Amino acid sequence: MRVVMVPDADGGATTIRTDPAGVPLESPRHHSNAAGAVRDIEAAGHPRWIWTGTAAVYPSLLRAGIRVGRCHDLALTHAILSMRDGVPAPPAEEPLTDDRLGLFDTTPVADPEQVVADFAAQRKTIGTDSRLDLLVAAESAGALAAAEMGFDGLPFSAPAHEAFLEAALGPRPVGYDLPQRIQTVSGEIGAAFGRSINPASHVEVVDAFRREGIELVSTRKHLLREIDHPAVPLLLRHRDLSKLFSTNGWQWLDSWVRDNRFRPVYVPGGVVSGRWASRGGGALQIPKPLRSSVIADPGHTFVIADAGQLEPRILAAMSGDPRMVAAAGADDLYAPVAAETFDGDRAKAKVAILGVLYGATAGEARSLLTLLRTRFPVAVEYVEKAARAGERGEVVRSWLGRACPPPASDFWSHGDARSRGRFTRNFVVQATAAEWALCVLADLRRRLADDSDSELVFFQHDEVMVHTRNPETATRHVLGAVDVATRLLFGDTRVRFPMDVAVRDCYGESSIES
């Protein structure tokens, strides 16, 4: 069952039941209470909800304690279909809010009949393309998960983070003052140069070194480290402390952590490859020092699962190269490649395979690539075909049909063909990896909906985190979702997608690296 749901400005909503093609099966029905209507319809039939955009509609339902199983997100689907037509969709006009209502936050009002028409048009475009249909369903499921994770939040100890900030920066400053440690280091930098300077000023730092007889073209970290001067370690220390203060300091804590939960704003499909982005809080960039404050609730633990060597395995499954598929059937894909092609040198095997993915053609990677091309001709040709298409200014697509952006208007006169080729080479693999991860997320969310002991609290590219009272069951959920996602995309493939699973009380204890 499909149900179009269009909220109005007064807390009500209009619903229209349709068939799978978007043909209305009833006249529009108005409900004075949108949340109540959704609750009743969801309980009665678990429909696929059709709405303008999950980010605009779902948060108000979550605040009312309502969760839905499935949806079709018109905005995200429009973005996918428009890009396939070579027309990047503009950003959706939706409130940039988290789960808190601001003074001027309103629910966008749309014409219910137009929403039905838009849904019917999208279904007609998708037609019988099962892969594209799966992509749209996974993208919409991801939007539900993103809204729910932002609403529920990631367990995060505010006291632990405050203690970390005080240890690193000193007591919380008052007003616009800088933390004590930053002020101290600034004074030490001035002493090293024999005069007071602003360490945050590129111009003043370059001028200070010039007075010491040292010419700098930039104050980038790698250039500073080449200089033998007592101010260098102090400048690097100042930079690290300043970044901590500005990015994840007390203001960040006040803004994004409430009730010991970090509540960011995720943006599904925020990157052209389909990877997520973050609109607030830095959800996808949790620095390692902050992870020590991600602490499970009493009686709970985290199950943290990371897909190892994901993109090479994706290439093996996409290309169907027999030898690479066989290598990807092992826990360590690089080991059999090393044994068969590089005299057991795993490091060389890794450099060569990543060189294939990212278009490395210089230095050692070039000679290694020649060996790999002989060993895995089908896999290498798969990405090189995508690279040649990009160099010609063509558009390439992922496994499920996400299209890369068309070249810029000046590509034919001033474009860098080789650079675009590297982009399209990587796009077909990276976008497909994002689709696989999104299918994992969608199925994991479905499994956790029936598990009162576990909740999905974090997702980043190829890593998921479940907060649970029962880590054994949560681990089975994750591994089961991986199996389902693999079959959905690649059928009965011999390629394995092993997950590194860690059970930890604190995220900072995990040795998993993305």
Automatic annotation (TrEMBL):
Chain segments carrying region Disordered: 1-31
Keywords, ordered alphabetically: DNA replication, Exonuclease, Hydrolase, Nuclease
Any GO BP: double-strand break repair
Record-linked SMART domains: POLAc (SM00482)
Any one Pfam family match given in the protein's UniProt record, by short name: DNA_pol_A
EC number annotated for this UniProt entry: 2.7.7.7
Catalyzed reaction equations: DNA(n) + a 2'-deoxyribonucleoside 5'-triphosphate = DNA(n+1) + diphosphate
Entry keyword Hydrolase: yes
CDD domains: DNA_pol_A
GO terms, molecular function: DNA binding; DNA-directed DNA polymerase activity; exonuclease activity
Catalytic class of the enzyme: transferase
Residue ranges occupied by any DNA-directed DNA polymerase family A palm domain in the UniProt entry: 287-472
Keyword Nuclease among UniProt keywords: yes
NCBIfam families listed in its UniProt record: PRK14975.1-1
Name by which UniProt lists this protein: DNA-directed DNA polymerase
Native source species: Rhodococcus oxybenzonivorans
